[in-house]
## 1
Amino acid sequence: MKSGGSGCDPAHIFPAPVRYSANMEAADLVHHTSRRFNEDLERVRSKVLAMGGLIEQQLSGALSALIDGDAKLGRAVAQNDHTVNGMEVSIDEECSRILATRAPAAGDLRMIVATIKTITDLERIGDECEKIAHIALRLAEDERPADRYRAVKHLGRVAQGMLRDTLDALARLDAELAVRTARLDRRVDEEYESIQRQCITFMMEDPRMIRRAIDVMWIVRALERIGDHAKNVCEYVIYMVHGKDIRHTSLERVEQELMSRAAP
Amino acid sequence: MTGSLWWLAVRLALASLAGAAAGWPFGYPGLGVAVVLGAVLVRHYWLLRRLQRWLHDEPGALAPDVEGVWGDVIGSVARLQRRKQYHKLRLLRLLRELRRATTAIPDGVVVLNPLGEILWFNRTAVRLLQLHARTDVGLRIENLVRQPEFIHHFRSGEYTQPIVVRAANDNAAYLQIQIVPYGAGQLLMLVRDVTRAQQLEAMRKDFVANASHELRSPLTVIAGYLETFSQDPALDPQLAGPINEMRRQSTRMTAIVEDLLALSKLEAADGAAQRTPIDVAQLMEQLHQDIGPRLGAGTTLVCTAQSSARLLGDEAQIHSAFANLLDNAAKYTPAGGRISMRWWSDADGGYFAVQDSGIGIASEHIPRLTERFYRVDAGRSRATGGSGLGLAIVKHVLQRHGATLSIVSAEGRGSTFTCHFPPEQLAAV
């Protein structure tokens, strides 16, 4: 009978997530006087992550549609975007309800605020996936280039990995992983610029390539935006765990600060 | 134990008496008793302290060697401890063996509580699902395994069938996940890497589709030349027989290739079939007209549409399935037989049945009838020119429409093939 829990209730035997022995603030996110409230928060989090899972699938579908020239898959991804939007609306409503009826404070309030911001960014990622799917649909009619969009594929992998790590950081409330993932955004930006330069070269060499090159540029632009949105979500994770707003702060400074906090 | 307690009481009484006797000459018998009892109390306190120190401060040390009632108590405690130690060691060994066994299982194993929170997982699960050994215990599985199909399956509570999802970290990898409920609402999740099997399956489907497609053009050329030859009056009349046989066989081959293509198209189509309302009575009329010339002499065909309900489905596919059933009936019903086609509906859905008075099928063949190229006997289907794929096509079409096929047959007396469509595939007019 630890901490007054009733022995037979599994919810007490296996307390909700987050183990940061070094960080008491993260542990605060878990302890609640009201169990129902705790369940509400957990449900919202699961819903956000389910939305994230759907977006992960949308992104991988959109990229496959482009690389394999699969028009059917592209159409399916484009049509599925309304599901993502519906999820955003439903989570948004639930957050408003929790704010209105439970009046959360401290860590819980941070979680709700961060969730509302997170779903906005996730929904935008969904929109970018839809954009990629639409362009893939158009490009599927043409013959695929000799390199089969190798550079785009690579950038897509990085963006996919970033999105996955972001959602993992959110699921585990792992601020360290969030910082590491946010850093990847710089790599995405660099690759975006290099593909852009490549496209410009193609266009200058062969004016017949202009249309496709512009389409490819739109796609890499969308992937770059996905990286930005994923980085935003990482920042909300850090805010949720540490209660510190790190937007517009250099990541090195954030990392230093987190290290110095964890050390003692 | 009770004996030594008695002895203790007697000794205490005797000591008190001795104390009283010693104090008597000095006129303080009470003080004598108090001094003796005090000494006894100090001794017991000292022994109790030793027992406590042995129990708390020196785990595993030898039991203090004491006589009397304390010796008894210490002896019992030591015995209990030894027994506990023995059981603990046995359990530990058993647990270690179990751990080793579950770790050695080539499949990923995750144990979940009724809320879907992770209690335990093995090393393979770490690799397949990218779980983190220490931090992930207590997290909800659906937060970490986020594939929409998995979340849907997990929340549905229906775990009879395993599901296959793409791995999160590798687009080309597939995982099969089977959830097994056990104990008090706990769940065992088995994860297996089925990438190789999926690839083979995809390769097989591609191969059949491509091979059939590639065979079609040479077959058309051969059939074309054979047709020209058969109509050529200058041809040696001795060759007429062989050329006609070649024509028949090339027609049959074309039919097989067409059916193979139709099957692979059915397999490749994912998701449910489209839901166009189909007028079954009209479809039966059309089937009746198509099959007419192929019926044996004197064979009667009866059509009865007892329901006006529309069937929701893909019209071309439903047509091909019903036509295949009717075709089989026509093929295996000798001249003068009777074939009936019936469409009716009730609260459980719609039924399309084809009944014939043909040669029938022995019961041991019925379960395997819908397999590709399954032959009841070697001569039978080849003589009638079937592709051997008709019922396989019927099965696939029905599967896509959520329907089932039931076959009732008696050898020599005929067969009944009934398609049962669930109520959600029907629409009232």
## 2
Amino acid sequence: MPQSAASDSALYRIDARNETVVLAFTGDWGRATRLPTSDRLVERVRVQCGDGSTPVVLDGSGLDNAHPRVAALVYAVTQHLKSHSIPVEVRAMPETVHALVDLARPPAASGAQAGRMPWLQWLGRAGRNRMAAGASTAELVGNAFASTPKLAVGKAQVRWVDFMAMIRETGASSLPVVTIVNLLIGAVLGFVGAVQLSAFGAGLYLADLVGIAVAREMAAIMTAFIMAGRVGATFAAHLATMQANEEIDALRMIGVSPFEFLVLPRLTALTLMMPLLFLYAAALGIGGGMIVADMVLNTSPASFLGRLQDAVAARHFVIGFIKAVCFGVLIALASCYLGMRAGRNAAEVGRAATRTVVVSIIGIIVIDAIFALCTNALGV
Amino acid sequence: MARFDATRPPERGIVVRDLTLAYGSAVVQQSLSFHVAPASIFVIMGVSGCGKSTLLRHMIDLERAERGDISFDGQRLWTTDAAERAALQRRIGVLFQSTALWSSMTVGENVGLPLQLHTRLSTAEIRDQVAFKLALVGLAGQESRMPSELSGGMQKRAGLARAIALDPDYLFLDEPSAGLDPITSQRLDSLIMNLRDALQLSVIAVTHELPSIFTIADDSIYLDNESRRAIAHGDPRALAADAEHARVRAFLNRQSVDASTRAEGDGPESPARSEVL
């Protein structure tokens, strides 16, 4: 009679009789919400077996129906017991269960899972992989230096329509988000500076604070963060997808250098656009500070700009400009490297995009710190 | 052509009645009526672009037909409520053409996920079921491997193990042999037939691989991409010899339509000039 078993006790019975252990499967396995596990059945059967030579009979005469779940347990229990050299006999099992168990093939001896790798071997492999990754990075940077002159003289394997699309993607398409972020960053700096400086009557110096902070640090860094998230992730995901679809292999097969065709346009576009975006971002950041100075301190735009001209030397813009170029190169190389080294599946595409953003942000901070140390040492 | 009588009372298996498939105003196939018997293998065949995979996507409720009806054991697919449809979907297993294994999960996790989502079995209970399903398709002990580490044939078998994870009553296969070498393809065909016998499955396979069609099919339908209708229905071995339409004979005998027409005499429609294969 069909029954809904809340526990697995209605689904099997173990008896020891006539020097055999009988594991009888009973009830309706299809409707059961809990099933016995093979580990548990084997453990209980082995307790009954004693010295291990007692044969085990798997009896299916008490089953209400022949659900495939029974076959899964018959198969698993049989495999377990045979591995312990316990004789097993299957008796009165429905034909469907027999057919399924016969169809299942145990793992081949050679197909066994490899054991844990010895730690020395693991260490060696990890070191070799790191060295290979370092060599790939060096190759990418070397290629960048070697191929850029070819692009300059028009001998690189680049589709100019792709290059112009990259220029638009990295430049014009990024303007809205660069505008919003840098205008607000300049305004926030202006507010914080205005409150602090006006406390001791130095509100006039707000132009110094906003100008130097924006030109030297914030415009380049904030723009680089935006580009890492917006453009770097897109580049990495696109290249990883091409890798998964074997498009990059197809390029190699027709004699096209994937570096020149895919990396060079992205690298050049980002390297050219980043400093231009920096100048735009710096102007907006200073504009944000100027609006706040007018609103909070009643400093007119003319006074603000006059003070800015006196206080912010051109070298601050030059430092920000050079940083922007470095950030552009970093984001382009990181995104292309991680995209082209991605594995050939969907998960790797997302992973490449995420890694690009993380690596780029860390790299931007590291480069900025190096610049701070160097400019401090040089007194600029 | 043996026609299915749509006026008969509901019967076991899958019944397709007067189905019209369309994307917008473009009709893919029209007036499709056929019956898939329980525990049989039914092959949907036809040349590339005739709408085989589209028909399969409608039968597994991924698309809604323009007209017509599909019922499983008398239960109508598109008129039942959401809960009944969900219950019906759990009785359907699908092997997609690209296998569609989730690349971020191991093979074991791929097969175990339907059990996790649709049963109350514990992790240990699911582990037994997954191990058995993988053993059924010849992948015993491969639970911890990632799909990307498997060959094409192994991926197909892993996809098949996932498709039968919930012990479905109906198994849909979209181009199961596509991209496989003849030996692997033949093994997969044997596996499909064994699963039909052991699990008493109704298998619906979309394919244009002739060796597979002749090996596995108990019954078949030929979708014509010119008339946009099913122009043959029956055992493909019999259709290869005496199908009413020249295009069906040409397809099943790997001939051009002209050659088929010359060999067997004219079919009911004027012979087309195009090569079928």
